[in-house]
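Subject line: Sequence and fold of a protein, written as structure tokens
Enclosed: The protein record, placed directly beneath this head.
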Amino acid sequence: MRRSAVLGVVAVAFGLVVVVQRGLAGLFDLTYVFVTGAGVLALMQGLRYANEARTDDRRAVETGDPEDRYRVPVPGDDADAVVSARGHSRASVRKRREFHRRLRRVTVETLRARGDYGEDAAEAAVDDGTWTDDPVAAWYLGSGVATPRSVRLRGLLGADVEFRFAVTRTVDALAEVRG
């Protein structure tokens, strides 16, 4: 331990003892010289601490994110990932086909649940595109439905553009049917 630290600990300990035993305070004559000496000592310590603080390296402390929590999967995240994915890898083609089947199944189930169509009639309505007024949605989910011009134009821009366009229009048409 440094000498100044030891001296400080002794001074604080003596001060605590003086508080308990008031008779020890009479050992010191509180004259002008003693008070001035204590003031000079305090000033020197203050300057020393200020100088140390000025020359110390400042390091920032990195704290962790207080709200860092486990991200719970949200229903539909996988669908959003398929629709927003770019590229033509085999995995994306497979995922897009699965997404198409899921969207078709949801459409058939919705038409049945609304009571507009029976068991086989809902499948037939989706196949021939009569379930909606939107030609893009009818083409995307149907079989044998003519490809609309808007889809062909977007197909020139790439399969990703065509896919996202068809999915967006189909979801909007399905939302309209659901009311």
Notes: The chain is about 70% helix and 0% strand. The chain has two domains: 3-54, 81-178. The helical segments are 3-20, 32-55, 77-84, 90-114, 119-128, 135-141, 149-157, 159-178.
